[in-house]
Structure formats: structure tokens, C-alpha cells
Amino acid sequence: MTVFGQVQPSHPWEVWDYKTKPVRGGYFRTASNVDVGVLNPNHLPITDYDLISYVYERLLNTDGSFKPVPWLAESWTFPDQLTCIMKLKKGIRFSDGTPFNAEAVKFVEEWIMDPKNECWSAAWLKPLKSIDVVDEYTIRWNFKEPWGAFLGIMANLPGFMISPKALREDPNKCDGYPVGTGPYLFENRSPGNWIKLKRNPNWWFGKSVGHPDMPYFDGILTNVIPDPSVKLANLRVGKIDSMTLEKPQYEMVKNDPNLKVFLTPLNYLRGYRFNHSRLPFSDIRVRQAVAYAINRRALIAGVEFGLGRIASCVYPEDHWAHNPSLPPWPYNPQKARELLKEAGYAGGLNIVGHVYNNPQSRTRAEAVKGMLAEVGINWKMDVLDAVTIEDRVKNLRYDLATGDFPRIDDPELMATAIFHPSGGRNWGRSKNEAAIPLIEKGCQEIDMGKRQDIYFRLEKALYDNCEDIWLFWEMSPIAFSKNIMGYNHDMEVKHKRVWTHTHPLWFKEGRP
Amino acid sequence: MRPLIPKVRSGSLIATLLRQRLPFIGILIICMLTLMAVIAPFISSHNPYSQDLYRVLEKPSQTHWLGTDNLGRDLLARVIYGSRISLYAGLVSMAISAVIGILVGLIAGYCGGAVDNILMRITDAFMCFPYFIFVLALAAAIGPGINNVIISLSLLGWTGFARIIRGQVLLVREMPYIEAARAIGMPEYKIMFRHILPNSLAPVIVAASIFIGRAILTESGTAFLGLGAEPPTASWGKELRAGFTHLERAPLFSVTPGFMITLAVMAFNFLGDGLRDALDPRLRRGNIACEEK
Amino acid sequence: MHKYIAKRLLYSLIILLLVILIVFIVVRLIPGDPIRATMQQNIDLTDQKIVEEVRSQYGLNKPIHIQFCDWLWDLLRGNWGRSLQTGDTVLSMFWQRFPITLELFAGATFWAWIIGFPLGVLSALKKNSFIDVSLTSIALIGVSIPSFWEGILFIYLFSVYFRILPPSGFSHFFEDPWLHFESLIMPTFVMGTHTASLLGRYVRSSLLEVLNQDYIRTAVAKGLPRRVVIQKHAGRPTMVPVATVISLSWGHFLAGAFLVEYIFAIPGLGRMGVEAIFARDFPVIQATLMMVAVNVLLVNLAVDIFYGFLDPRIRLY
After folding, report:
1. Strand ranges (DSSP E) for A293-418?
2. Same domain, yes or no, for A208 and A331?
3. Contact at CB, C57 and A118, closer than 8 angstroms
4. Residue ranges of domains in chain C
5. Is residue B4 domain-resident?
6. A247 occurs within a structural domain
7. CATH classification at residue B227
């Protein structure tokens, strides 16, 4: 095992022991369900985070347990509860030549916070008071209150660094023509049809670890193909090089000799939420009855084709905030019936709710509906679009409804949004007296160890109160054509984003 | 010289229809489908709602003649029960559309003048919208559920009937017996409903038959997009949609409902065709320039 | 004649106003707040101020009659709004997709002719024979098959098993002409079979009607060979209603095109409309319904005037 480059491997992912030498060349062709939308991560809508990550980079990245690690920011200290001194990496330039430095970071964050720029990500920066430039590569962040999620946020949307020159000149142009520090540059696009990125020959990272050839592809071409069967057909005939499979497709292609298929765990929770503000789910016994009535194992086997990890509580098992001592809720329909009888619903119970309108959600909800029917609960489940759902959630017109949460990075975001009365998805539907102070403490605790302890206790509080139904944490099958090299599945699972970003793939012979 | 509008006598009509091959097949299929829908609980050996998550997407077997669907339910039972939704949607939307359309067309054709003008402009305005997109927008506006889809289908479907009836009424009202009825002092509405309407129904019957076929097709299209009957109700369009993702693994899952939709629509089209041939006097006359077998 | 054209134009104007009213009402019936929903999907908002600012940008705060007048005024000026989903102007989206849908229509009409016309003629000439019955059945089946079902079956047959055609997608003619046509074969064929069946039936009944006419009988009695009679005397009158069918089928096509465009991943108008409906993208929904209805209106107007030229009796209506 040889280790290239000048950087001493201080992190386990900084290892590039390729068995064959990477070959430059070729456009990597992928497919997405919808058009990528707007290309400024601070404006709506964003439909493709992967694409954004090719062009822009963040101040911090995340490792295998979703803890923030250095990226564009090199190191940081917290001299007191309300300040953070951050040192940035030197020698990085945006693709339009602007240097990446403290001034740039200050400009971008202030641009986001300025209300006239209509950035929705501004809400995430609420605790930020001001930013001072200490010297060219050092920044001082000043907070209004202790901000525990600060690093997590800088590893997320507001941490994406956009060229200040581009923002100054024409902020609207950035929506269509992104300028960042990432491995790829925007080349061209046909709205609704495809988008092309081309290789950034001056990507700083490759050079800094002694692999100036990175990224190896000449570019990336993302086609818009809404139908998954058509996407798969394209992959099989070689018109695209990789795709995220639908779960039913996994069985079909996992033994295909022309494809390499892998299962990736995702930080995505699938479940259902209760409306605690009214009967019947203000009664904990009824909530527990629903939890006992659902056979999670059968659900994953039949509906998810085995692709899912049974959830115990909210944070996935590989997340640092996950409390390992909580077991998944057991399946016990008999107990469910007893609890219902105790609560006074021996003759049956009618509840209403909604789920999103896509095939997998519908099927899952149908299966759960059948399970609830077995214990005497009739769940009138409406399949609706996002807008109508939003309306119902806001007005608390549901009992049991869709409760997924994608992209769980910093634990604070999800905790506040769902379980805190001021949260964007709460609207007063739940009020767990034990959990709320823990959430507030977690917002403000800067020490990682103490934070972890707080979130462990939070999970316990939610679990004990049977706060919601947590079904499973997602797994996603991806498939590559067989001439895509450089993908190490074990490392990817272990280190996730930071590994993927530092280990670009290549074509075996430099072309598709 | 325009031929007399034939009065529809049911006995001779049915006899004429049954003599033709295609309409006969059409009627046969419709009868079988209707029977299937009505006695569904008695002919399906499984409950279409009982799911078995450990036995999803199975191949046909002794217990499940067509295999199972994506929740482990018996596919044959779901296809049989699915006929209920499709036929229900087709028939009810046709009935509502016909009632609205006939009223509008009757009034427009009989009253003439400004009333006719206004009503026809409104009809034209609605006819400018392609069926499917408008039904989709409406169904999205008024919410999910099969009844709402039927309402959407009817809100646009009446236009065809209105047009047809109006055309017929324009012809019939010039007939001498109408003038005679007026002369003896018969009230207008009686003339409208007792004399004009029955004599104008011939093309409406044709249109009705074809409308049912189109309604079934549109309903399956909207079900394909997720609107329509709520789960766990079985509907051909929904099964077709669910079956797509599993086409390779369980082809019967989508082939069967697709086939049933095609069969039902085809039957109504055969019937409509036959009705048109039977009721249109001009085509019944012999042709010298054509070969006859 | 002029009176006829003027009357037609007046009617079309009235219809246009009614169409605009219908579109506005239907779109306003759709419940929910699209801005909030789109934002909620991507970030958990606790700041009402930001939501209100974005809403005011789209003018969703003003009372409804003001919104209607604003919208009408904007329409006339060519400002058709911006998509809530992508931020592009609706007009530019329309211009990008309209030619594609038009091309699909042209291709479908091509197939419709190649298949439908001979089918119709043959079954008319051999009326009531076995050939007639079987061709009519085939035509009726073509009309009855759900286009989305047909589409997917074709993709699996020709792209996955036989591998002779690309499964989906769309390349512009200027990028790769061969691929452009290849990728259009299946979708146009699927749409074409539908129109072909309609066309075949129409040709059949039209030809039968013409052949029934007295002047045909005279020609045959004169001793002309049958083929000459059909080609020379029956040919042209048959085509007139057929031309109408083709132009009027544009309206139906727009609707059916969505499902085919969806399956084959073609970025056309139909797909744009339906995706907008699901995403509650109001500006796009409004504009699509308008454009589609106005399209049909214009085509009908043209056909009416054309008929007015051809057949003086029509002008009495």
C-alpha cells in the first residue's frame, strides 16, 4: 500500500491506494428524476444536491458518522461560548479566479443574511451576529447566543462557498451559472432535458494531495429521465453510467454481469408522525398501540424488498447522535388490541392522515393501513401533493401522517423542526416536556461529547413518550456500469461524504 | 333530400346489432364484465384486500392463479374487483355528462337565437381544453378520490353530448309534426321532452357508448398518475401503475389490468360502432362501387 | 363571405374570454400555498418574514380580482410569469417545448397516415368482408389501448430485449440527427397508432359516404373501370373531412402526449403541464391551460374559415 502526496494521512480516508492507475477522460453520464432547478443553493428550489456538490464546496465536510470535519476551513477554536475563530485553507481560488479567503466567506454569509437577496437558508443563520476578518485567512464568527449546531450548519447549505465576484456582479446569474471552488464547472444546460458540467483543471484538492489529475472525468452530463424503468433501460444499454435504483429494481440487476451494484445506507428516516394536540393520539396508549401494530420486519421485507434498517428512534445507527441502547419497538398486535381496549376503542378507531404521492410512499402506507386494520384501526389515508400536505400539517388536520426526514446531518435541525413548538414542521402538534429543554440545550452546547450525551437523552425522552412511529432508516441501491473504476464500497460506507468527495471515479479506458 | 330521422325502436335495434359480428362481441364482453363486477365477491376465491408482505410479486401458482401483487394480495381478485371502479366511473360519468349535455343542447337547439348562441359559445369554450389535462387540473383542484374524478370527467364531457343533441334538435324541430303539436296548443316543454328529445336520441346513444370507453381510458390515465380511487380499493389504472415498476419481475401485474382496460374500451367502441351503423340510414343502403361478400 | 369570417372571429373572441375565465377559476380552485410548500420541502422554516417576502414577489398577496387583472395585463404584454419550480420564464419554457411537441405531432401524423389511410381505404372498399372486419377490429384496438401501457411494452421489446432503439430521451436535431430521429421513432409510433385508428375509421366512413353518391353511380354506369372511379372521382371529396380530422386531432394529441412524453422522457408541453399541476406551479399551470386552449381555438377558427371557403352551405350556420 503506497500513499501518495505531501499531506500526512491524519484521517483514515486520506488514503489513495489504487490498484490500477486512474485514467483521465470521458463524460460521466447520470440521470435524475427532475430538472436540477436553480443552481444557487440559497434559492429555491434545489432538487439535486449531488450536482450542487460537484460545483460548490463547503467550509466543512462530514465524515462517516456525520460529524463535521475540515474542508475549506482548516481548523477552528471556540475561545468562548459566543465566538469561533476559524482558519481557512490557503491558496484556493474560485473558478473565475477570485481568491478564496476570509473576505470571501464574510461576503457570502452576509449576502445570505441580507433579506433583499431572498435566501431561505438565512433562517439557518439566525444565531449569527456578525463576522470579522482577522487576517487574510482567519475569520472570527460572533454569535448572539451559544450555537452548538454552528459547525453542522457550515457543513450544510449556508456553508457552500460561492464566488463573491459573481454574486456582486449579477446575483441572478448565479441561479443559472454557478461559480464555486469545486471539481467541476458549469458548462451548459438544456432546461428540463440535461445539464453538463466540465472538469475544473485547477481544482485545488487534487493538487494538494499529489493527484493533479483529479477529477478524472472530462465532465458530467446529467439527463432528466423521470421514469425509473426508462432510466434502468438506459443504464442497461449503456446510455448512462450510473443511477440510483428503485428498490424493486435491485433484485433484477444485482447479478447483472455488466453492472456493479451496491447498497448504500442513507441518513434518511422513514416513519409517520402523530398529532398529539387532539384525540386519539393525545393518549399515549393509543400511540403505543399503533407502534405495536406495525410489523416493521415484514414491511421492510415486502415493501422495501429487504432494503432498510429497522429504526429504534430518530437518528440512524451510524449517526453520532444515535443512542445505541434503545431497541426497535417490537411487533405485538395482541398488545395493540389490549391497549386500544384500555383506551376505550374496543369497537374500532377511525383516524385520518396523508402521505406523499409517489409509488413507494403509497405502497408503504397501504401496507401499514392493512396492518392497522388488523387491530381495528381504520386509517383514512389520502395521497396528496406537497402543497396540500403543507396546508394540512400547518392546520393540524391529521392524526397520523407522513413523517419522513431526509438528510439528517446536524441533529439539531431535525430535533427543532419536528419536536420543538417553534419548529417549521411542528405547528403545535407535539409538546414533549422532557424533550424540549434537551433540544434547547443541544442548540447551545458546543462541546461535542456533551452534545452527544444530550442527544442520547433526547432520543430516550422521545422513545419513552412514543413520540412518533419510526419505521426504518433508508438504504439506497446504486448501480454503475462495469467500466467505472475507483469505487470502494467499504470506504464509502465507513466515511461517506468526505470519502466520496476526495476519491473521484474514472472510466476504465478513459471513455464510457 | 334528407332522409327521415329513424325512430329508435329497441327491439329492432338490438336485433340489428346482434346480427353484426363486432357489435355482438362488444355486447358480449360488456355483459361479461358487468356480471364480473356485480358478482365479484362470489367468483374470486381470495379477498382482494388481504396482504401478505412475505409473499409479494409471486409468480402464478395453484393458490394464486395470476400471482400476487406488490403487497402480496391475490392479483386475480384485484383485477376482478377493479372492474367495478372502471365500469362505475365510465357509467356514472357518462350518465351525468349526458344529462347535462342533453339539457344544454336541447335548450340551445330548441330556443335558438341568443340563448343558442350563448350556450354554444360556452360549449365551445369548454371544448377548447384537451380532455386529459383539464381533468387532471380539476381533479387536482377538488381533491383525490374516485367520485371527484367522475365529477371532473363529467364537467368536461357534457360538451360532446350538447353539440350532438343540438344538431339533431335543429333538424327535428322543423318537422311537420312538431308544427302540428304547436298548433294544437301543446306547451313548449312538453314538445321538447315528449317529441323532440326521443327523436334526437339516436346519435346520443352512439356517443354515450363511445364516451364510456373514453371515460374508462381517462380514468385509468389519472389513476396512473396517482389520482382516482383511494387505496386499498383495486382499480385497473392503479394496478397498471403499480405494475410498471415490477414489469420484469411480475409482468402479469401490469399486463392483466392493461389488457382488461383495452378489452373494456374496445367492447364499448365495438358497440358504439355497431350502433352508429345500425342507426345511420345512409350507410345501410347498398353500394354499387363496393364489393359485397 | 366576409360576414361569415367576421362572425367567426367575433365568436372566437367571446370563446377566448370564456376560456380565460375558466382557466383562472380552475387554477384558483386548486388549494394550498405553493411557495410555502416548496420552501418547506427543502428547509425547515421558522421565519414567516422570509415566506411573506417570497410570496409578495410572486404577487400572491393581493386580492383576487387584482390578481386576475394583473395576470391578464401581463399575458397581453407577453409576461407570462416565472415558474415556481425552476425560476425560468414561462414563455421561454413554452418556446423550448412547443417545437418538440409539434415534432411529435408531425411524426405521429406521419405514422397515422402510413397506417391509417390504407387501412381505411381497404376496409371501405371491401366493406363487410373478413378483411374489413379484421381491419376495423385492429383499428378499434388501436384506439382502446392505453398509450402508457403501449409505450412501456415497446420500450422493453425494442430497447431492452432487441436493443435496436434508444429507450428514451431526446437529443436535438443539431446535436445528433440520427439519434434525434431514432429516439422519436417509438413515441411517435405509439401516438401514431392511436391517431391511425381514428384516421382509418374516418377514411372508411368518409369514403363509403362518397361512394354512395349519385355521381359515383353515374360514373360506374358510364362504364369507367372501378379503380379510375375511385381514384379520380372519390379521391378528393374523401380528403376534405380527413384534413379536418387531422387538424382537430391536435387538441386531443396535446392531452395524450403527456403520458407518452412522460414514459419516453421527452421534454414537451404535455409533460410540462402535468408536472406543473402536481407541483402546484400556478404560473405554469395557468399558462399551459391557456396556451393549449388558445391553440385549439385558433385551429378550429382556421378550419371553420377554410370550410367556409370550400363549402358555401356551411356559411349559413
Report:
1. 308-310, 349-356, 377-384, 400-402
2. no
3. yes
4. 2-76, 96-311
5. no
6. no
7. 1.10.3720.10
Contact status of B124 with chain A (Cβ, < 8 Å): no
Grid cell listed for C313:
352551405
Architecture in CATH for domain C96-311: Orthogonal Bundle (1.10)
How many other C-beta atoms can be found within 10 angstroms of the C-beta atom of residue A121? 23
- Contact call for A385 and B70, based on CB within 8 A: no
Provide, as residue numbers in chain B, all residues whose Cβ is less than 8 Å from the Cβ of C29: 138, 141-142
Cα distance between residue A184 and residue C187, in whole Å: 34
Residue range of the domain that includes A150: 5-241+483-507
Cβ distance B254 to C149 less than 8 Å, yes or no, reads yes
Instruction: Give the closest-approach CA distance of A498 to chain C in angstroms.
Output: 22
Please indicate, yes or no, if residue A50 is contained in any of the structural domains.
Answer: yes
- Test B133 with C292 for CB contact under 8 angstroms: yes
N residues, chain B: 293
Interface mutation vs chain C, best among B121, B133, B249, most C CBs within 10 Å: B133
CATH of the domain at A105: 3.40.190.10
The beta-carbon neighbor of C146 closest among B131, B217, B247 is: B217
Residue A256 counted as domain residue: no
Looking up residue A286, the CATH number of its domain turns out to be 3.10.105.10
- Determine the structural domain holding residue B45 and report its residue range: 12-292
Q: What is the ipTM of this complex?
A: 0.75
B3 in a structural domain: no
Let me know if residue B2 belongs to a domain.
Answer: no
Q: Do B136 and C277 touch (CB under 8 A)?
A: yes
Chains near C (3 or more Cβ pairs under 8 Å): A, B
Chains touching chain B through at least 3 C-beta pairs below 8 angstroms are: A, C
pLDDT tens, residue order, chain A (512 aa): 233 334 455 788 888 888 888 889 899 999 888 777 778 888 876 777 888 889 999 999 998 888 999 999 999 999 988 999 999 999 899 988 899 999 999 999 999 988 888 888 888 888 899 999 999 999 999 999 898 889 988 998 889 999 999 888 888 888 888 899 999 999 988 877 789 999 999 899 988 888 888 899 999 999 888 777 778 878 887 889 999 998 888 888 888 899 999 999 999 999 999 999 988 899 999 999 999 999 999 999 989 999 999 999 999 999 999 999 999 999 999 999 999 999 988 888 999 999 987 778 888 999 999 999 999 999 988 887 777 788 888 888 999 999 898 888 889 888 888 898 888 788 888 888 889 999 988 888 888 889 999 999 999 999 999 999 999 999 999 999 999 998 989 988 999 888 989 999 999 888 88
Tally of domains in chain A: 2
Q: Are A493 and A439 members of one domain? A: no
Instruction: Specify the number of domains making up chain B.
Output: 1
What residues of B are in contact with residue C156 (Cβ under 8 Å)?
247-248
